[in-house]
Design a protein that fits this description.
Rossmann fold, SIR2/SIRT2 'Small Domain', 2 domains, six-stranded parallel beta sheet, 11 helices, 9 strands, elongated, binds zinc ion
């Protein structure tokens, strides 16, 4: 419940752009410099029964997945925050669908990288030993699932799910193109003109007699997270005895509160990132570099694993 309160507060702050600074509200349990000793991490890893792995955009970036955020991150003349919001969809559903159609099609050319694969292999191996691994991800590209991860909590939804704005039905959708009218559309070049597809020809609900407009089942700016998913996240964070934060800044939501909360419980948290973050000093371990390089040796079979 505490987490949920923190979540709503933090999400609101994040959406208002106010969570750029590190939050210093929680207890700080580790103000000594975090260790980068892989051997020490491996000792903790070998004993862990419930491992929670929080992943962010950095993991996808190493597979070449564009984020449409930050300098140079444009689709036509917009960034994600301009199109990934309910207002943009209400104003111009055709443009927003072009954007998501493009992102879905791009994913057909991308593959899981060694970080995704190491996480999936670790889950599979540890499950045979009665140990659990859960991935809590803000990525919507399904690369964890494609790598073979089974227990994945997608807190921001998925590019490959749709939701009917009329009946609310959520379904997996891997069609390419997602509808005939979007075929060949969605080019990212800034000079591309909007396709202006009529709303009847955009993706429509296939539930009997509904035919409502579909939208991507992703959490947009200004929207709240799925409470069922958050409940599962809370449960996992409460039972985990090791937490990894991979490819996310630990400054903005969600790592901004998930991982420090776990650390405040005295549970070891290991950060894998290309740079230090304002939360780094709260964690037990910090491994700097591309997670495709740092994660596989951290998660490989330990000598004490007999199965
Ligand atoms: Zn429907």
């Amino acid at each position: 419940m505490i987490l949920r309160q923190l979540t709503s507060r933090c999400v609101s702050a994040w959406l208002c752009g106010a969570a750029r600074e590190p939050r210093r509200t929680g207890p700080v349990v580790n103000m000594v410099r975090p260790s980068s000793d892989l051997g020490e991490f491996r000792k903790v890893f070998a004993k862990a029964k419930h491992i929670a792995i929080i992943t962010g955009a950095g993991v996808s970036a190493e597979s070449g997945v564009p984020t449409f955020r930050g300098p140079g991150g444009y689709w036509r003349k917009w960034q994600a925050q301009d199109l990934a919001c309910p207002e943009a969809f209400a104003r111009n559903p055709s443009r927003v669908w072009e954007f998501y159609h493009y992102r879905r099609e791009v994913m057909l050319t991308k593959n899981p990288n060694p970080a995704h694969l190491a996480i999936a292999e670790c889950e599979s191996r540890l499950s045979r030993q009665g140990r659990s691994v859960v991935v809590i991800t803000q990525n919507i590209d399904e690369l964890h699932r494609r790598a073979g991860s089974q227990h994945v909590l997608e807190i921001h939804g998925s590019l490959f799910k749709t939701r009917c704005v009329n009946c609310g039905h959520v379904t997996a959708n891997y069609k390419s193109p997602i509808c005939a009218a979007l075929e060949g559309m969605g080019a990212p070049d800034p000079n591309t003109k909007d396709a202006n597809i009529s709303v009847e020809k955009l993706p429509r609900c296939e539930q009997s007699t509904c035919n409502g407009l579909l939208r991507p089942h992703v959490v947009w700016f200004g929207e709240t997270l799925d409470s069922d998913i958050l409940t599962q996240v809370e449960k996992e964070l409460e039972i985990c005895d090791l937490c990894l934060v991979v490819g996310t800044s630990s400054v903005v939501y969600p790592a901004a509160m998930f991982a420090p909360q776990v650390a405040a419980r005295g549970v070891p948290v290991a950060e894998f990132n290309t740079e230090t973050t304002p939360a780094t000093m709260r964690f037990t371990f910090h491994f700097q570099g591309p997670c495709g390089s740092t994660l596989p040796p951290a998660l490989e079979r330990h000598e004490t694993e007999i199965i």
